[in-house]
Amino acid sequence: MSRVQAVIVGLFIVSTASFSGTVYLYYQIDSERQARAHSEKIVADVQKALAENQKLLEEKSLNAASLDNQAAQLKAEIRTKNQEITKNRTKIAQQESKIKDLSEKLTLLGKEKTQLKTRLAYFEENQETEEPNTPDTPGQIASGQNVLAPKTVLAAPAVAPLVASNAKPKAALPEVPEGKVVLVNREYKFIVVDLGKLDGVKLKDEFEVVRDGKVIGKVAVSKLYESLSSCEILSESAGLFQEGDSVRAGHSG
User: Fold this and answer.
1) In angstroms, rounded to a whole number, what is the distance separating the alpha carbons of residues 62 and 39?
2) Residues 233-238: what's their mean pLDDT?
3) Are strands 190-193 and 214-224 parallel, antiparallel or unpaired?
4) Half-sphere exposure of 56 (CA within 13 A, CB side)
5) Less packed terminus of the chain by CB within 10 Å, N or C?
6) Mean pLDDT to the nearest integer, 71-98
């Protein structure tokens, strides 16, 4: 082989080697470029995920703040409700105390009503003109003790009228306080008033029955007791008498 041919073969070999190296370098560079692009995509995905997570954290923080506000409002409402419950319990306790007091008063009124009914039964059984003695205590009436011995009560002597040329004689007005009707008996046509001997009442004294400031009728004492009087109904000009009507002294009979 000549020298020229050898040189040519050498150059061919060098060119081939250089081309192979170039191709290898190209593939290496392309591979690195793809790897870099993949890495950059991964980084972008991570950054996007981080941004989304940050957004979620901010939303959670806002929700947490809102929940804290709602919790604070609920606590305030609970405190208000507890205060109202305490006030209501106090009011209920006061009402229960009032109910207890009213119950005790009703019990006492019931006992007084029983005593008055006992006295009324006695009035109905003793319609004679004789005046019985009054028992010493209401309890003796209620227990049925035989302490009501009959006795005649005489009316107070009449006051001598002053004689004048044109004057007509009048009986003196009894000085007794105003009282109340405590019982009305339609069957026997009499009422019971809470005025008696201790109030200066006498047999045959007359009372005016008053309601709303107006005279609605007259009664006369037919039976007399220490603190009660049984009165015969003389007239009723404005309806039937009722328990609670007022009575005041009128002219004596």
Assistant:
1) 35
2) 84
3) unpaired
4) 6
5) N
6) 88
Residues 236 and 169 in one domain: yes
Which residues, at least 6 apart from 171, have a Cβ–Cβ distance to it below 8 Å?
Answer: 158, 159, 251, 252, 253
- Give the phi and the psi of residue 217 in degrees, each rounded to 5: 165, 180
Domain count, the chain: 2
Whether residue 138 is contained in a domain is answered as no
pLDDT of 248 higher than 70: yes
Convert the pLDDT of each residue in 197-224 to its tens digit.
999 999 999 999 999 999 999 999 999 9
Cα within 13 Å of Cα(10), Cβ side: 7
- Dihedral angle over CA of 234, 237, 242, 243, nearest 10: -50
CA–CA distance, 176 with 112 (Å, rounded to integer): 24
d(CA 88, CA 39): 72
Q: Do 230 and 192 touch, CB atoms closer than 8 A?
A: yes
Do 158 and 98 belong together in one domain? no
Which pTM was predicted? 0.36
161 and 79 co-located in one domain:
no
Mean per-residue pLDDT of the chain? 77
Q: Who wins on pLDDT, 186 or 221?
A: 221
The domain boundary, picked from 117, 144, 178, lies at: 117
Check if the beta carbon of residue 218 is closer than 8 Å to that of residue 154: no
CATH number at residue 219: 2.40.10.340
